[in-house]
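Researcher: Re-running this chain for the archive, since the previous output was lost when a drive failed. Same request as before.
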Amino acid sequence: MPVAALIVDDTRLAAQVIRYHLEELGCMVVGEASNASEGLKLFRKFKPRLVTLDLMMPKVDGIDVLTMLRSVKREAPETVVIVVSAIPFQKTQDIFDQEGVLAYIVKPFNQYSFQPVRIKLLRAFPELKSMHAS
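Model: Regenerated structure tokens:
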């Protein structure tokens, strides 16, 4: 059974690239959101096991990315979260690492820079190994 994934990114092209890499790995994208408020609603509706989060999105209904991340981790601690952001700073990455994200990948990325994330996802979701030849 594929791993259900939710993409939260306000850049259409970035969402398409993320979708491609996740589907290539064997994930099934169940929803896409363009802000954290919408992302949280879709998270609660679909209960995906994997969420990708962009950091540079408009704050809507008082919900920003950090609020969404903390809500996801509180409501479903086993959910795997990957940050996909144009912010390259180590300090920002450290903050999200402390919040429990599995990986932090800097945009733009390609199949080579995605490789470390791919390896972490295969470890987090062993069922992907049987679906995807390594």
